[in-house]
């Protein structure tokens, strides 16, 4: 085998290992969260590796659907969620 073929094989093996690692070591927290802002409601289901990350991503995603502009988005993300339902947590809490 020449050097190029060896480099390609190593690259492909590393890529496959990365995919396997990211799949097996995936998110541990899954939340369904609903936000209400100016009479509109949006819900998002999000997975993340931390509880804080799951909450922040769900709030941001829901507010992106119902708020327009920077000021509205900031106000929406700083308000309390209408509902929060944990679908998965490592400690089993719901």
Characterization of this structure:
This protein has 94 residues and is of the alpha+beta class. The chain is 50% helix and 26% strand. The chain has three helices and three strands, in the order H-E-E-H-H-E. It has a three-stranded antiparallel β-sheet with strand order 2-1-3, covered by helices on one side. Strand 1 (29-37) and strand 2 (40-48) form a beta hairpin. The longest helix is centred in the first third of the chain and has 22 residues, at 3-24. The radius of gyration is 20 Å and the shape is elongated. The model has no long low-confidence stretch (mean pLDDT 89).
Summarize the structure.
The chain is an alpha+beta fold. It has helices at residues 3-24, 51-66, 69-77; strands at 29-37, 40-48, 83-88.
């Amino acid at each position: 085998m020449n050097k190029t073929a060896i480099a390609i094989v190593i690259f492909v093996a590393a890529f496959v290992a990365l995919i396997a690692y990211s799949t097996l070591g995936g998110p541990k927290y899954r939340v369904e969260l609903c936000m209400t802002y100016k009479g509109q409601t949006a819900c998002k289901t999000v997975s993340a590796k931390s509880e804080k990350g799951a909450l922040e991503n769900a709030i941001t995603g829901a507010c992106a659907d119902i708020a327009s502009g920077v000021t509205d988005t900031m106000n929406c993300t700083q308000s309390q969620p209408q509902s929060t339902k944990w679908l998965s947590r490592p400690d089993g809490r719901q």
